[in-house]
Each structure stands twice: as C-alpha cells, then as structure tokens.
Amino acid sequence: MERLLKKLNDSQVRYVVVGGQAMLQEGMPRFTLDWDLFIPPQDPDNFSRLNSALAGELDMEVEPLDLRTGDGFVQTFQTSAGIVQFHLSPPGLAKFSEEEKRAVTRDFRGVPSFVWTTF
Length: 119
Description:
The chain is of the alpha+beta class and 119 residues long.
C-alpha cells in the first residue's frame, strides 16, 4: 500500500485515511484488510490527480459524488495492494475540509499519510 500512498502524495491528491487502517496507525488493535480513503466529494482537480495517479491500478475512474441521488458515496476497487475504498460522504464524519484540518500525518512504511484521528 505504501506504493499507492506515495503515488497519491506525489500527485498531491487530497485524502484522509479513515476506518480500520487509521485506527491501526494510532496504535489501536484492529484487524482490517482494506484501506478507506476519504476524499473531497466535489473537487474536479483532485479527481483528475487521483485518477491519473492510479490509472494503472483502477479498472475505472473514481467519480464525484452525485449530490442529487447520493450515488458514489463509496467506491470500492481491487488494486495490486489490496482493496481500497474511496469514501466521498462517510457517515458520522464532518465535511472533508473539516476532517482534513483535523488529520495528522503518520508514517506508513516510510511514506507519510494523512490519518483522521479524534485523539
């Protein structure tokens, strides 16, 4: 996963790691196999950078949240690093811009990643 996180960082993709992997990065025991990434739901430039960075990993592009229908609030992909879910409107979390401000940087195998934390 560090290779994919590095691609996102190198492409200046805005994301916050949430869910089980975020808990693990905070030192909380949690068994999880997937990675949950919260991304801004309506940022065309970020979607472009994300889709370019992971073009060889995803079988289709990650798409913006459809505000009218709610479609696309979570999009799941199998990658070479495992399952990655892109969350555009996670239940229980504030807007992306607020969670991004609260996120802290953690080192994941030599790659800095932005992790949501309430601690």
